[in-house]
Amino acid sequence: MAEWGGEAEKARWRLRTAAALLLGAFLGFLTRHFFLDDFGLNALTDAGWPRWAVVGTLGGIVVWLSGPWEIGRRGLLIGEALTFGVPGAFFIWIHQHGLASAPPSLLPKLAAAFPGAAAAPWMLLIQVYGLFIPNRAGRAATVLAVMAAVPLAIACVTAARFDEVYAVLFEQGLFSAMAVWILISAAAALYGAVRLSTLREAAREAREIGSYRLVERIGSGGMGDVYLAEHRLLRRPCAVKLIRPGLAEDDRALARFDTEVRAAARLTHPNTIEVYDFGVSEDGLFYCVMEYLPGLTLHQLVQRAGPLPPGRVVHLLAPVCGALAEAHAIGLIHRDVKPANVVAADRGGVRDVPKLLDFGLVKRINPAPLFDTPPIDAPPDGGAHHAFRNDGDGNRDGDAADAASDPQLTQLGSVVGSPLFAAPEVARGGRPTAESDLYGVGATAYFLLTGRPVFDEPSPAKALRAHAKQRPRPVHEANPAVPLDLSAVVMRCLEKNPAERFRSAAALAAALRACECAAEWSDDAARDWWAATEGVPSPRHPALLDDGRRGRASVGADDATLGDFVLQDDSVVEVDPNSRGVVVETHTPDDTAVHPAPSR
């Protein structure tokens, strides 16, 4: 089913209802068939055992969906295909059989009735699908387009076999009428399916998860949707991430979600995003509650202000190195350090507090157990493993146990992280290390100081090749305002050989703070900058003021496959002009895609 997560039981109920409705229709036609004695115009009803086969299949599906056993996402997808595919196959067979077995004298009458007789059952099938199987627009349009095209294609094949049908369809012009009927039915079903899906999403946004009231959806990331929320008792704003519909029955996706949350929860550095809560709602929806960060990502800062002053870059990145040092000390690497994953936040009235986001690509680098307790149990009957891939066809062998026990959930053979900020060893397909994170810090610093990535290539594949093979232009040449000592620190981070970079994140932080420009930016300077900027972040989201002001986040997503490089779970979340906040997860395949800064 296209809509999933906590809606599993509702999805099962809808499919069962659709199968029961079609079963009732076929039983009605069977009853009618018993009272038709003469062959005549009823030749098309002379189906015999195929109709009973359809009744048996639909009845079996209804019983299967009504049982006490668990049915996973893959099972429901199979049930959906059988519920609509078996009747469709019967419709194709019955019209061909009826015309082929009819006496020649009856062919003109049967041909005259063919357009309506062929279109009506498919229109019923289309309407039932649109009403009971709500989808997102893309999937609904694909399925309904196939269901609309099949009867029209069969009509053309039938016209080629029978001259009488050809005369009715094409010489009398009834094929176009038949096409209009079916296409109108498909368009209405598509509208209904999307509308129902939209209404269900709106109802979901108005719900409560545990002790948290969801206010509005503010973004979407690789693993799930992110909502602005408020604790019912504390009235504290927070960000709640719900695992994306369609992934709740994927053991690997759940394992990655579990690993991300547990990794972030174990980190206590003040410059790492804080995890408040984690659990499963009453209807089986996985969620994670994190601090809400008013502010802008470093990528958005550069979009708005251009290259940042060297002192501000040191002010923002030295604490990030401290956050990475804590992660590295307990055996974790981030693997996706980039401007979009660092927020210049407002915390307690202090501006430009850097916060490192998104441990969705976290990887353990030591053999010691990471957690004292086992991961959460995934729902039984795990579904299709479509979120992770590492071969040329986008498939990977393995079972859920592997995923649950190994945090390396973005599989080897795929490029981990973002191509524009990928370390050379990662671009070559090697294992990322703590030094890879330091390369990400250097690439981020380069972007902040120059306003462009280290290698400004037009495609992810070319960017990865450049990181692997080309030497970057020194940052002080790209921007003469960058002091030589800071340029030397950045360029050391960008060394191709990991051994030639800084020995640790703590050493990098010390080198940054030792630069002469480090004292050029302070908390007061940050406060003055934000005060002079129209987009001053607010510590309280407008939607929490209950004055009716609601914003909508601009969300884009892309899964790109270019040449030998497979990029997974990449999406970008932009801050809504009204919300003045950033969400807790951002993956971007191209962090340099410049979008106009929101006007305020």
TrEMBL record:
UniProt xrefs under PROSITE patterns: PROTEIN_KINASE_ATP (PS00107), PROTEIN_KINASE_DOM (PS50011)
Ranges annotated as biased composition (Basic and acidic residues): 388-399
Protein kinase domain boundaries: 212-513
EC number(s) recorded for this UniProt protein: 2.7.11.1
Top-rank taxon: Bacteria
Ranges where the record places region Disordered: 371-404, 578-600
CDD domains tied to this protein: STKc_PknB_like
Chain ranges passing through the membrane: 18-36, 48-65, 77-94, 114-133, 140-162, 174-194
SUPFAM superfamilies per UniProt: Protein kinase-like (PK-like)
SMART domains: S_TKc
GO molecular function annotations of the record: ATP binding; protein serine/threonine kinase activity
Keywords assigned: ATP-binding, Kinase, Membrane, Nucleotide-binding, Transferase, Transmembrane, Transmembrane helix
Entry coiled-coil feature ranges: none
Residues annotated to bind ATP: K241
Family annotation (Pfam families): Pkinase
Signal peptide (residue range): none
Protein name stated in the entry: Serine/threonine-protein kinase PrkC
UniProt source species: Alienimonas californiensis
